[in-house]
Amino acid sequence: MGGGPPDVGKMLGGEEKEEDPDAASKEEERQEALRQQEDERKGKYAKMEAEREGMRQGIRDKYGLKKREEAEAEAAAAAEEPAEGSLTRPKKLVPAGCGDEEEEESIMDTVMKYLPGPLQDMLKK
User: Fold this and answer.
1) In Gene Ontology terms, what is a biological process of this protein (predicted)?
2) pTM listed for this prediction
């Protein structure tokens, strides 16, 4: 940078930087202010959420509704319990009244009565 005034390098952000002797204390104050603002914001949000929850609870009480978490927990518990007549219930080996040889014979006799003669002869063999 020849030919220019001697302060041009400093103006362009080169060589020397002046350090503020209070820079560390200012940074600490800034950080503390940020923490304080964040705490105030969180407190304000918590207060608003508490008010909202109070309103929600009033509505739940008025209309007999359950809290979402409680309703979801009950739905999950109901899904775990096998329902009577559901497709996923364990099957019984032999339902009551089925599988008796005497009943099967009586059913075959009933069917045989309604079949024509040649079919009856064929089934008897």
Assistant:
1) synaptic vesicle exocytosis
2) 0.39
